[in-house]
Write a structure and sequence with these properties.
By secondary structure, this protein is an alpha/beta fold. It has one domain: Dehydroquinase, class II (Rossmann fold), CATH 3.40.50.9100. The protein is built from 5 helices and 5 strands. Strands 2-1-3-4-5 form a 5-stranded parallel sheet, with helices on both faces. α3 runs parallel beside α4. The chain is globular and about 40 Å long. The structure holds 1,3,4-trihydroxy-5-OXO-cyclohexanecarboxylic acid. The site of 1,3,4-trihydroxy-5-OXO-cyclohexanecarboxylic acid has 10 residues, from loops.
Amino acid sequence: MKQYSFHVIHGPNLNLLGEREPAIYSTLTLEEINNRIREFAMSKNCEVRCFQSNSEGEIIDYIQNNRHCDGIIINAGAYTHTSIAIRDCLASINIPCIEVHLSNIYSRERFRSHSYIAPVCIGQICGFGYYSYIVALQALIHYVENYSK
Ligand code: DQA
């Protein structure tokens, strides 16, 4: 079986996980979450690279530079609710993308219920803490194995 290569992108303020609003996001650090993602990826024989940036432009550059990989998982943080530029970037590339959130964005402030990113993704997973990324990776593997070109 082909060894798939995926990218996990974390947006603004996710570098502060562990100390940032732990009642909402838990006390796991981003490094601990990345380790759990990598561990799961290894068990499925895929390669995952993790990237974090607080800058919209850097996220767009990263997506463009990696647009030939097998799939992307993105937690765009607050850019989810504001960034037409990230949405256009994801719409411009021809690979499957899944949107992820640690928290349930639909049970929080109203402005979090709208995502510019979700309509250009194959799906969205939110509300399961770090496990949202694991579910997303599982779904992405299933998608590329069954539906990708
Ligand atoms: C988040 C939800 C967003 O609304 C928020 O701006 C974040 C984190 C999440 O993972 O739950 O930064 O993307």
